[in-house]
């Protein structure tokens, strides 16, 4: 017996069966990091915001009243805002690091800019509505023209009906020209790239900065002086078309170029031609953006004054015929009324300006309704219509399958008798 066998024999069976206590290693302690909150508003942020605002206001008041000879409301606002940003950055830096501090400060700057723009818009719109309400509250402002009213007449006599009708007719003729032409040109620029399309895009971009008086002078020279037409609403609409066409073309071109190329490729791969792809895929997908382009073009032409003055003249009576005779618009009527020193005429001018804003609002709502929802976004009515159509298709397919189903006991063979070789 060897030494190894002796050592094995010395071991008892119980020692082999019981290996002894098992040592379980302790789990490592994981260090849990605190998540950084990237969204929402915390209580510390609110305290820092209001504390910096109060400190900035106090510091500005101290500088402009006690320590420095500075005066002026605008200077106080600028100094106070700069002091507010600096103090806010200092307060945020007590709890956050550099990137978070810069993020908070830039967020405050962006929100402040948005608030200033919104306040300016509300101030302009509110001021015009308040000043024009004294004339707009009278029914004759909407139903009468200025043929029987002079500058000294009260607001109960005369109105802006002739200007409203003139604006509607001129804008309607202008949109009938620039909407199809602008969309066709945008489709050409986006779907047929090449040397000529680049040249057209350059011309369009140059025309977007064309002064309105130049468009009016061009129509006045070409249509009235050379061809001998009289001043009328049609000439004004043509001048407005020159102003609105490049706006629609450029905006629509940008929208069409944002459509994914995979949609076009999928349509072409299924066998559709290029014009059917544009008509059934590209344009429906870009419909909300095209509606926005039309809104921008309309807003550009509806407020023009100088082209209308050069090509349509000025009239105080209603002229619904756009092919002959002078025809006034709301911007031109506003311009002529506010120049008068009489308070009643100034009120009529502000009323015409408010009516113009309401007209733009109505056109905006109509364009959004006609533009519809984006691609893949269905309204409840569209969803129900599509569900009913799917149910009808399912019933039709089920009926067709039932007609093709063989009768019981009838065995169908893949070949007719006699066809077996």
TrEMBL record:
GO terms for biological process: phosphate ion transmembrane transport. Pfam families: BPD_transp_1. SUPFAM superfamilies: MetI-like (SSF161098). Gene3D superfamilies: MetI-like (1.10.3720.10). It is a multi-pass membrane protein. GO terms for cellular component: plasma membrane. PANTHER family: PHOSPHATE TRANSPORT SYSTEM PERMEASE PROTEIN PSTA (PTHR42922:SF1). NCBIfam families: 3a0107s02c. Part of the binding-protein-dependent transport system for phosphate; probably responsible for the translocation of the substrate across the membrane. This is Phosphate transport system permease protein PstA. It comes from Virgisporangium aurantiacum. The lineage of its organism: Bacteria, Bacillati, Actinomycetota, Actinomycetes, Micromonosporales.
């Amino acid at each position: 017996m060897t030494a190894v066998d002796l050592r094995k024999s010395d071991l008892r069976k119980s020692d082999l069966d019981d290996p002894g206590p098992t040592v379980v290693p302790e789990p490592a302690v994981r260090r849990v990091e605190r998540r950084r909150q990237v969204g929402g508003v915390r209580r510390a942020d609110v305290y820092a915001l209001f504390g910096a605002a109060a400190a900035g206001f106090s510091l500005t008041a101290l500088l402009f009243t006690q320590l420095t000879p500075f005066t002026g409301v605008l200077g106080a606002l600028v100094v106070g805002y700069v002091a507010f940003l600096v103090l806010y950055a200092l307060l945020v830096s007590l709890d956050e690091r550099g990137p978070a501090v810069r993020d908070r400060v830039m967020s405050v700057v962006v929100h402040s800019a948005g608030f200033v723009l919104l306040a300016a818009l509300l101030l302009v719109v509110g001021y015009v509505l308040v000043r024009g309400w004294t004339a707009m509250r009278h029914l004759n402002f909407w139903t009468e023209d200025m043929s029987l009213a002079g500058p000294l007449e009260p607001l109960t006599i005369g109105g802006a009906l002739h200007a409203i009708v003139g604006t509607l007719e001129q804008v309607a003729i202008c949109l009938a020209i620039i909407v199809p032409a602008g969309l066709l040109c945008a489709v050409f620029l986006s779907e047929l790239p090449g040397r000529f399309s680049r040249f057209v895009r350059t011309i369009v971009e140059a025309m977007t900065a064309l002064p309105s008086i130049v468009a009016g002078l061009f129509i006045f020279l070409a249509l009235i002086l050379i061809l001998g037409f009289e001043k009328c609403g049609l000439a004004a609409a043509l001048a407005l078309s020159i102003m609105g066409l490049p706006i629609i073309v450029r905006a629509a071109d940008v929208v069409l170029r944002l459509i994914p190329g995979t949609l076009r490729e999928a349509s072409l791969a299924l066998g559709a031609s290029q014009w059917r792809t544009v008509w059934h895929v590209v344009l429906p997908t870009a419909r909300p953006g095209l509606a926005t382009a039309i809104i921008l073009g309309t807003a550009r032409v509806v407020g023009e004054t100088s082209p209308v003055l050069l090509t349509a003249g000025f009239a105080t009576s209603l002229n619904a015929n756009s092919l002959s005779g002078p025809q006034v618009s709301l911007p031109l009527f506003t311009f002529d009324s506010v120049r008068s020193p009489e308070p009643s005429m100034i009120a009529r001018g502000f009323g015409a300006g408010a009516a113009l804003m309401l007209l733009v609002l109505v056109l905006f709502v109509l364009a959004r309704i006609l533009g519809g929802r984006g691609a893949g976004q269905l309204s409840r009515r569209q969803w129900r219509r599509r569900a009913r159509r799917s149910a009808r298709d399912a019933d039709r397919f089920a009926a067709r399958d039932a007609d093709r189903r063989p009768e019981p006991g009838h065995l169908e063979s893949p070949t007719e008798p006699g066809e077996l070789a």
